[in-house]
Amino acid sequence: MFDLGVTLDKLPLFLHGAWITFVVSLLGALLGIVVGVVLLLLRRQPLAPLRWFAAVYVSFVRGTPLLVQIFLVYYALPGLTGIDLPAFTAGVLALSLNSGAFVTEIVRGSLTAVPDGQFEAARALGLPRTVIWGRVIMPQVFRLSLPPLMNEFTMLVKASPLLSVITVVELTRTAQTVMNVTYRPIEAFATAAVIYFVMLFVISSLSRVVERRMAVQRA
Description:
Elements: H1 5-8, H2 11-43, H3 48-62, H4 66-81, H5 87-111, H6 116-124, H7 129-159, H8 171-182, H9 185-218
Helix pairs in contact: 2-3, 2-5, 2-7, 2-8, 2-9, 3-5, 4-5, 5-7, 6-7, 7-9, 8-9
């Protein structure tokens, strides 16, 4: 019989797991933006090897499962560098490296929407290249990229349960732990599903608000 009583006694554990899910996803998204911008700049460099590196990186990440990338970061990276990464750090790193490839395509698409006249006007004023990108171009690119970046964040939240395979105690891992204690898998995963839904509903609602405000500003 479906009985939430025992499972709800573990609600603080679920909320802590939800917090870990939010934190790893947010850190993965923020670092992913950094990785994505660096890759975008590499793809616009005159040196061909830098452009090739960025292109190969994006193709490799987008063409391989995230679970494999998590295993590579958690198990292979320490073997190559000699540095043992905690599961939480490895999880954030894997998410950010994965997200960076997708962010690159997002900001690259937004960059095409910035008129060429912006570059020409900035160059005509004699602005340095760093100022042109940092003060003129990238603020416009990020404003245009905000809705798809919010969507990328929701994708990271949905992908975060994969981190349970390297023992990151996020929401899904918490549900597994509660199930092992209460022997009530349906109630445990139903509770986790409801919390995931609430988190993603709030994020999606914020994304729609941002999109509406941006549409008003562009009108």
